[in-house]
Design brief:
331 residues, TIM Barrel, disordered N terminus
Length: 331
């Protein structure tokens, strides 16, 4: 008998299925016109692909959103904040809180005379409102920064400055700050150095008693042409032994003078209650060594950026924070 073979004709439907349209037994010569096993399998694959592509997609926003990069920074035992002098001098309280939050700063020291207007002339309700604004935010109102000094040889002015400082302490208590920053600002030429240093110290001791009554602190900034020298700051603090009187390390170039950074730091390390930092990109100061000394001393308080104003402040603050972390080997 002559060899015959079966040929089947299929067509792919619009729904992706197949249907038989004919089945004919033909001689072997006709099998070239019939579809082969290869074309059959190709048709099945095409139909399967069409079916998949025709299905509705269910992709969500999460599928297309970029993957968040991990934060590689480790936590510091110290806190990062800012002094409103000069970067934030034109910011009101909402702006100050907003910028600190965006830059991941934790607290602030409000310098007197700036746009936040936290001054002793605030009424009781106004003080309560300042306190509420910070309490309702993640930003701590750490301190109020005054410009009071106690080196004057004028007894009446000295007494007035001390009394005004007490009023400022009460303001700090009312708005929820932990204390105030004060400063020496020089040594009168007509007065023996030791007498002036003792006078500043006794003034601080009196303020320390007021601060204790209010559960606050008085922090002496390392400041002034001659008074910023650390041996002089130590002498002042020796005359103010109150535990409520602390030093505010100010990152001055003179910190490395005399016996050097380590020896100068050792003079006051037990009394440090606050740290001011200049721009961390400056190479005239050993910031990495300062952080090492602070960590070794067990300091856990605020380090505050006291830097110039900028038209792009949050970006500058973020750079500052990254350098702050890097100097501590945390980034």
């Amino acid at each position: 008998m002559a060899a015959v073979s079966a040929a089947a004709h299929f067509i792919v439907g619009s729904g992706g299925g197949m249907r038989l349209i004919s089945a004919v037994s033909t001689p072997a010569a006709l099998t070239e016109a019939a579809f082969s096993r290869r074309s059959f399998l190709g048709g099945v694959a095409l139909a399967s692909t069409a079916a998949v592509l025709s299905r509705p997609t269910t992709a969500t926003a999460a599928d297309s959103a970029p993957t968040a990069l991990p934060d590689l920074a480790r936590s510091s035992a110290m806190k990062l904040g800012m002094v409103t002098y000069n970067l934030g001098k034109d910011w009101d309280i909402p702006t100050l809180i907003k910028n600190c939050r965006e830059a991941k700063f934790q607290g602030v020291e409000l310098r007197t005379t700036h746009a936040h207007k936290v001054e002793v002339n605030l009424s009781g309700p106004e003080r309560a409102e300042v306190r509420r604004r910070f309490a309702d935010s993640p930003i701590e109102l750490f301190s109020l920064g005054s410009a009071f000094d106690y080196h004057t040889p004028d007894a009446a002015k000295l007494r007035a400055d001390i009394e005004e400082s007490k009023r400022y302490l009460q303001l700090a208590r009312d708005v929820g700050a932990t204390g105030i920053k004060v400063r020496p600002n020089g040594l009168p030429k007509e007065v023996p150095v030791e007498k002036t240093l003792a006078q500043i110290g006794r003034s601080l001791e009196e303020l320390g008693r007021t601060a204790a009554d209010l559960d606050l602190y008085v922090r002496l900034e390392v400041h002034g042409a001659e008074t910023q020298l650390l041996p002089n700051i130590k002498t002042i603090l020796d005359h103010a032994p109150s535990p409520r009187v602390k030093a505010c390390w100010n990152s001055n170039p003179t910190d490395v003078s005399g016996a050097g950074m380590d020896a100068n730091f050792a003079l006051v390390q037990a009394r440090i209650g606050e740290v001011h930092l200049r721009d961390l990109y400056l190479t005239d100061y050993p910031f990495r060594r300062l952080f090492e000394l602070l960590q070794a001393s067990g300091y856990r308080g605020y380090t505050l950026a006291e830097i110039p104003e900028s038209p792009d402040p949050v970006r500058v603050m973020r750079y500052f924070r990254s350098l702050w972390l890097a100097y501590q080997n945390l980034l």
